[in-house]
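Case study 2.
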Amino acid sequence: MAEKSIAFESNHSGPITDNTHGWQKVTYAKKQKKKQAKPSDSGKVIANGSVVPGVDNVFQSLEKHSDERRKRIAAQTAAMYGVDDAPVILGLKHRSDDENEDSDAEGGRRGAVEEKKKEKVKKPKKPKVTVAEAAVKIDAADLAAFLADVTVSYESQQEIQLMRFADYFGRAFAAVAGSQFPWLKLFRESPISKIADIPLSHLPEPVYKTSVDWINQRSYEALGSFVLWALDSIVVDLATQLGGSKGSKKGGQQTSSKSQVAMFLVLAMVLRRKPDVLINVLPTLRESPKYQGQDKLSVVAWMIVQACQGDLCVGLYLWAHHTLPLVGGKSGSNPQTRDLILQLVERNLSAPKARTILVNGAVRKGERLMPPSSLDLLLRVTFPAPSARVKATERFEAVYPILKEVALAGSPGSKAMKQVSQQILSLAIKAVAEGWRVCGVTSTCHSCC
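Prediction:
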């Protein structure tokens, strides 16, 4: 690098006797040091710029001092941990200071990674709790004490009492995951006979008796509101599962965010103990769009089965007034809908002494279990034109005789029967106008050619 210089004009007033002509040359000391010649192999440059021969001995002394310092540290470490080869353990071999620092840093990182791996111990999986295991732990005495306290605390608010009742079972079955109670899959794939007692079959008898005895003391109005509240919870869970299964190849039951065991349980107990409650909410079930659809029909069918367990007449009334009319609608052509409708009535009629109970109870609170309009619809699906026969036709033919008998049951000549006869006659005239041949009021109607 070329030497830089700065010239200053001298203020000397005397005669100039040198050749500088009044100018002086100034140089920088630091840059001057850099200009020093490199020492030979036999010497080094020290701080004042002179060359000292044999200066390698100085660095050897420093290295020796550093080694001794490391050995002292190693000895102290060995004494602390009780090992003989501390320098090896600590990675303190005869290396340069830079090598020691890099190795120690790498060893530290490696040790930290190993410690993290040791810390990440797999947590033991929680055991899966089944519905039966959770149900058997419920104590009837504890439930009775809880219900007594709730009844006193919310004496004038039966709706809240019932919600707290549901909450009690919600806590009891909180550990049951949705995978242990795949109700949607069961309702889709299993016949009514297999899902009728789900999940009530797991409940201990003392707990069931304590519950239904308490339910029996609640008003129909409060129970009706509670039934719709519980049904809404199930419908919301249904929507969540159907939404979660969209785009899934399996299309099966998804794990529910909240176990619905408690809702189905309390709903079943209410409907079995007070089946008339379902008749009271029937208009809402018919009119509200949120309760329409094939998947929701399976839930409503399950509810009707629960009511049948309490009263066969109520079950047939619900079937004739709510599910049978679906045959005449858009969904009536769906084989699954027809199958579900037939399963309901077949189960009802297969109960012990079903014919006697239904014929004797053909009129309920002034209303017929099988009104003339239901009989007319039953005739149409039981005896269609030959070209319109389907697999379900034979099953309708099998249940028709008993249902016709229930529809026409009553004291001959009574005021009620005269009214029924007039209604049937009007329907017969309409059927003739549509091309049907009616053989008589109490006989079977067949479609004509």
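The first strand starts at residue 6 and ends at 9.
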